[in-house]
Amino acid sequence: MEKYSVMGRIGEGAHGSVLLGRRKSDDKEVALKKILVKKLEDGIPTAIIREIKTMQVLHNPYVMRLLDHFPKGTGFVLVFDYMPSGLWEMIHDDKSALTEPLIKSYMKMLLKGLDHMHKNGIMHRDLKPANLLVGSDGILKIGDFGQARTIWKEKNGKRPYTQQVATRWYRAPELLYGARLYTEAIDLWAVGCIFAEMFLKRPLFPGETDIDQLALVIKNLGTPTEEIWPGHAQLPDFNKISFAPSKPKSWDVLLPGVPASAQNLAREFVKYDSARRMRPQEALNHKYFFSPPKEIPEHDLPVPHHDHRAELKTRDHDKEEHLFAFQDLRLFLDPVL
C-alpha cells in the first residue's frame, strides 16, 4: 500500500470498499478495491484468486485491467484504472442524453470485450450496467469479475456450476429455473437486457423476486414450448411453480419507438433457448451496426466528469430533499385549502 496514497472513497460493496488512490511513482489515479477477508491466516480466499487469475488472462481495450494486487491488514487490495463513471450513471444522467449513436458505440465496445472474454474461455456471469465502467476517455470496459468462471469444455460442457449468479434483472431464464449445467450464453441474455435498458432508461424485466422475475419474462416473451426451448421442462425447478399461459408481446410493445434493426438485435439475445442466442462476433456483423446513425468514433466519445458518480448522488439527494420539502408544504397547506 506504500506505493499508493488514498485520495477519497468511491463506493461501498457487499465484500468491501473502493477507494480513489494515486500511484506515487507517476501520479496516476487508480481505484483501490479492498476486499475483506474473514480469516487471513487461512490464506487468500479462492474467490480472490479466481478474480486475479481471470483478469491476468484478459488483455483487451474493453475489459478492465488489473494493475496490481497485494494483502493489506485484514483484507486484500486489487488495483485498477480509475473509472469516473459507468453505464448505469450514463443511462440515468438526465443532463446528458444517451443518444442512439452513443448506444451503438457502447454496445459495440461491450460486444468486443465479451467476445474477447468468451474466446479466452471466461464467462462473466454478472453483466449489468453497474459493472460496465466508463473511463476518462469515454471508453466502456467490462469490470467486476468476482463471479467470472472458466468455461468448461471437458465432458461436453456438462460440468455443473452454481445457479446463484447474475443480478436478478439480467438473469437468464435457465438460471431462474435452477439450471446448473449452463454455458456462456447466460452473458448473452444479459447483453440483450442491457441493450434494451439503454433505450428504455429502465430495466427490461424488473422483477422484485426470482419468481416475479420469471413471471415477467414469461408474460412478455410468452409461455415457452418444447419447440422454442428444447428441454426446458427438465430443468430442476420447472415443476415447482406454474404460470398462466401467455402469448409473446410484440417488440414494438417491449421497445416502443426503437428502430426495427435495434429491436431485432435485442431479440437475438433475449431468447429462451441459450443455443440460439446470437454470439458476440456474429452480433458485431448485425445490420444494426451498418444502418444509420453511425456510432460515435472513439476519439469523439463524450467524457464523463471526474466525479460523475458523486455528482449524480448529490443531484439525487437534492431531488429527494426538494420532494420532501414539497410534500411538507402540501401537508401544511392542505388543511388551509
Automatic annotation (TrEMBL):
Binding-site positions, ATP: K39
EC id: 2.7.11.22
Coiled coil: none
SMART domains per UniProt: S_TKc (SM00220)
Classification via InterPro entries: CDK (IPR050108), Kinase-like_dom_sf (IPR011009), Prot_kinase_dom (IPR000719), Protein_kinase_ATP_BS (IPR017441), Ser/Thr_kinase_AS (IPR008271)
Gene3D superfamilies in the record: Phosphorylase Kinase, domain 1, Transferase(Phosphotransferase) domain 1
Domain Protein kinase: 4-289
Top-level taxon of origin: Eukaryota
Family, per entry: Belongs to the protein kinase superfamily. CMGC Ser/Thr protein kinase family. CDC2/CDKX subfamily.
PANTHER family named among the record's database cross-references: CELL DIVISION PROTEIN KINASE (PTHR24056), CYCLIN-DEPENDENT KINASE 20 (PTHR24056:SF171)
Name of this chain's protein: Cyclin-dependent kinase 20
